[in-house]
């Protein structure tokens, strides 16, 4: 099992969600996060004064999936979240040792 984590721009979340649903992804967790990568924030002008915004609003998606589904899910996220601009985000996967469904006590692949 793998945990797929993606940090994407908030305005492409709906596109990613629709693409994953069409591909049959069973569920995901979405969190609003803020941070920066290479772009190191940006500056904005408000009432004539310039302000530096260090942290940029992003969305974090987490999906627990079987190993066979990982590459497909990562491809779908990349294709539907890509705008071609700096700050499109990142996707990575991590190995998950065990999962337990709290309601039934099922473990491993059955808990997905």
From TrEMBL:
A GO CC term attached to the entry: cytosol
Which terms are listed as keywords in the entry?
Answer: Nucleotide-binding, Phosphoprotein, Transcription, Transcription regulation
Highest taxon, organism lineage: Bacteria
Matches recorded under InterPro entries: N-reg_PII (IPR002187), N-reg_PII-like_a/b (IPR011322), N-reg_PII/ATP_PRibTrfase_C (IPR015867), N-reg_PII_urydylation_site (IPR002332)
The GO terms describing molecular function are: ATP binding; enzyme regulator activity
UniProt xrefs under PROSITE patterns? PII_GLNB_DOM, PII_GLNB_UMP
> Which positions does the record annotate as the modified residue O-UMP-tyrosine?
51
GO annotation, biological process: regulation of nitrogen utilization
Identify the Pfam families for this entry: P-II
Which PANTHER family does this UniProt record tie to the protein? Answer: NITROGEN REGULATORY PROTEIN P-II, NITROGEN REGULATORY PROTEIN P-II HOMOLOG
Subunit note: Homotrimer.
Q: What name does UniProt use for this protein?
A: Nitrogen regulatory protein P-II
Biological source species: Propionibacterium freudenreichii subsp. shermanii (strain ATCC 9614 / DSM 4902 / CIP 103027 / NCIMB 8099 / CIRM-BIA1)
Question: What are the top taxonomic ranks of the organism?
Answer: Bacteria, Bacillati, Actinomycetota, Actinomycetes, Propionibacteriales
List the gene name.
Answer: glnB
């Amino acid at each position: 099992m793998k945990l797929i984590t993606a940090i994407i721009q908030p305005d492409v979340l709906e596109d990613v969600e629709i693409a994953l649903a069409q591909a049959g992804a069973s569920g995901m967790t979405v969190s609003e996060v803020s941070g920066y990568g290479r772009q190191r924030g940006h500056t904005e002008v408000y009432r004539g004064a310039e302000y530096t915004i260090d942290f940029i609003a992003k969305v974090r998606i987490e999906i627990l999936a079987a190993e066979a589904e990982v590459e497909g899910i990562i491809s779908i996220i990349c294709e539907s979240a890509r705008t071609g601009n700096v700050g499109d985000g990142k996707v990575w996967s991590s190995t998950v040792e065990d999962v337990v469904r709290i309601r039934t006590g099922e473990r491993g692949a059955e808990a997905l």
